[in-house]
Specification:
2 domains; Aspartate Aminotransferase, domain 1; 14 strands; 8-stranded mixed β-sheet; Aspartate Aminotransferase, domain 2; globular; alpha/beta; 4-stranded antiparallel β-sheet; 14 helices; single chain
Amino acid sequence: MEWKWEFSRTARRVKSSAIRDLLKLTQQPDIISFAGGLPAPELFPVEEIGEAGDYVLKHEGQYALQYSTTEGYRLLRRFLAKRMTQKGMAVDEDEILITGGSQQGLDLLGRLFLEEGDWIVSAQPTYVGAIQAFSAYGVNFHTVPLDKDGIKVELIEEAVKEKKPKFIYVIPTFQNPGGVTLSLERRRNLVEIARRRQVPIVEDDPYSELRYEGEDLPTLKALGGEVVILLGTFSKIVSPGLRLAWIAGPQEVIEKLIKLKQGADLHTNTFTQYILYQFLKGGGLDRHLKVLRQEYGQRRRVMLEALRENFPPKVKWTTPQGGLFLWVELPPGVDASALLPEVVKEKVAYVPGSAFYPNGGGENTLRLNFSNASPQLIREGMKRLAKVFSAKIP
């Protein structure tokens, strides 16, 4: 008799990430990839991380190699609380939970808040990893469009009133995939709506340290306090391979998340937490951020110049002040997914924008990453892209 597995509804709902699948293709060494949100590996602080690892093994190995508390290494949480407080967020170390990457944070928040049939308010387009994490719980997305100033907050209140969502999910700073930043006025209005309507905000904040021009804006957490649960990560600003991130929120929320995390993995990797803290306390983060801002800022400028010089006039794009991405809009009727096989033949790749639309749409859009390729490869890759687009767009 043929064996048949009976999976749960949650498992049956889970779909593979379009970006993860595409990255398998772009692993080919001759592909110039603008697809993933990958930091530049040649910029990783390998030497400093190595020195931190040696120190930890020599002086703290008996603790770093042991089981730890679910909430995470206290000194690391204390460092984060101090840094967040300096940025206007009154956060205590006991209001921080260390997670295995922000993706685990998204999943834990799904476990905490979501049940089948619930609603979430999010931008359209929005981060594909959040779509994947939340969709596993059988939820509905009410999407709100973006413009150059971020999510259109004026459309959110009616959606909150009608749908009664469990939370509002936003990436206010250098949004993924759009690259746009929520204006200060809209940030204040969003926090006011959330407070008045008693609906929490989940603020995903992977990129705010990566600003290349313009002035820093206060986070929603700084403006909204206990109304906002913030997700932060070291993936983009130190190394994604460490898989270290954090959730900052009211202590009542953190305590519930700790219990959920205990059932998932007991605790995040102790050794990497000790190593990261050793790197951080010596000023490694600020030194590294200086390098990243300079290099990524240059790569962003090169990509924007290449767009202006090579792409057909009917193609539009965003001009991000920071982060890792910009968003491209092709003329209506031009399908970015259909063009991708031809683009790959030219040994270049991007992510079709439809992957970022939880309710469908966005066929004529795509996301480009500028952090992972050198300026020389960006120029060459954009010429290859423009060759395909120019042949298809009158």
